[in-house]
Amino acid sequence: MNSIFHNRHFITEDDWSKNDLDTVFETAFDLKKRFALGEPHRLLRDKTLFMIFFEQSTRTRNSMEAGMTQLGGHAHDLTADKMQISHGESAKDTAIILSRMGHGIAARNCFYGSGNAYLNEMARHAKCPVMSLQDDVYHPFQGLADLMTIFEHFGRDPRGLKVTVSWAYAESHAKPLSVPQTQILLFPRYGLDVTVAHPPDFPLNQAIVDKARLNAKAGGGKLSFTHDMDEAVKGAQVVIPKNWGGFGRYAVDEYLKNEAECKKEMAARLAKHKDWIFDRRRARLADRDVKLMHALPADRNREVTDEVIDDEAISLVYDEAENRLHTAKAIMALTMGGRG
Ligand code: CP
Predict the structure, then answer these.
(1) Which of 126, 132, 202, 312 holds its CA 20 to 30 A away from the CA of 281?
(2) Other Cβ atoms closer than 10 A to 36
(3) Nearest-5° angle of CA 329, CA 332, CA 335?
């Protein structure tokens, strides 16, 4: 008999029930304890995970690879440019072949308009679990680590916790929509009171916002929106100041047809919002015990000041990054193992 988790794809938490996710968190906390005790937990002995990165990564790549080693298996760290993907080999053929050789496939593909579709195409054909390491719509592993960190610092019943997900200025790159979209879909399912702040030029995808409202209604959480960052951080117990590009303004086909033009327009709009930063002044507007969270990498002194991110009384960013390991291991152990 197989468990309900065996061979399950993990592309968005929205495909998993709250009961399923509760099991994931229990597993992650258990694995975190076993890791701290130095207790072996080789639940995926001799199993192979194939990881395909179309983009750079520090936390995701290393949490998955270290996680597979600690679980007794091995992760292949692949990049699309080193594979026949670069000569046009299809997602279908890649998925079928890799799933005949191993036990899990994970991919990061954040190209706007095609990343999530690529993951879903792999999932349709793979005979093993397919995991999203971030795409243009979702970043499911980040969402799990964020919520685990909230549980650690605010308790396992965080209903009513006031969390502000705020757009912030950045120059490193136009960051995907996937982190805030995952957060607004997931947090209200656990009863959190989520406020989203962004300049009008930088909306999230409307279909995701509509689904997040339904999730909030079903989960007892709240979801509200504002274009005023000061207003959004007032009384907040957690602030997550993070850039996302202005992709949400464009329909996918419009963007794909005029990519260069859209990017130019996004850059021009970005330049108007340098004051969207989480600094000491804004931290004072928040709850007196406010916590900072950020998926990292942060654009320091653009999204958040050094003074705030390095303040150990406020910043949870390193706990959040570490929890990427424990949540990654939980998903891999449940989906790649789990035979009864
Ligand atoms: N938060 C996150 O996904 O980090 P990386 O891009 O380094 O994997």
Answers:
(1) 202
(2) 9
(3) 145
State the closest ligand 1 atom to the C-alpha of 108, by its place in the atom list counted from 1: 8
Alpha-carbon distance of 277 to 298, in angstroms, equals 11
CA of 22 to the centre of ligand 1 (A): 23
Structural contact between residues 122 and 105, judged by C-beta atoms closer than 8 angstroms: yes
| H or E, element range at 134 | strand 130-135
Binding site membership of 175 for ligand 1 (Cβ less than 6 Å): no
DSSP secondary structure, 249-317, as one string: GS-HHHHHHTHHHHHHHHHHHHGGGTT--B-HHHHHHS-TT-EE---S---BTTTB-HHHHT-TTTB-H
What is the spatial distance between Cα 306 and Cα 325, in angstroms, rounded to a whole number?
Answer: 25
CA–centroid distance, residue 55 to ligand 1 (Å): 10
* Residue type present at position 113: G
Q: Backbone dihedral region of 294: left (phi > 0), alpha (psi from -120 to 50 degrees) or beta?
A: beta
Per-residue pLDDT of the chain (340 residues; tens, 9 = 90+): 468 999 999 999 999 999 999 999 999 999 999 999 999 999 999 999 999 999 999 999 999 999 999 999 999 999 999 999 999 999 999 999 999 999 999 999 999 999 999 999 999 999 999 999 999 999 999 999 999 999 999 999 999 999 999 999 999 998 999 999 999 999 999 999 999 999 999 999 999 999 999 999 999 999 999 999 999 999 999 999 999 999 999 999 999 999 999 999 999 999 999 999 999 999 999 999 999 999 999 999 999 999 999 999 999 999 999 999 999 999 999 999 966 4
316 Cβ inside 6 Å of ligand 1 = no
Domains of the chain: 3-138+322-336 (3.40.50.1370), 141-320 (3.40.50.1370)
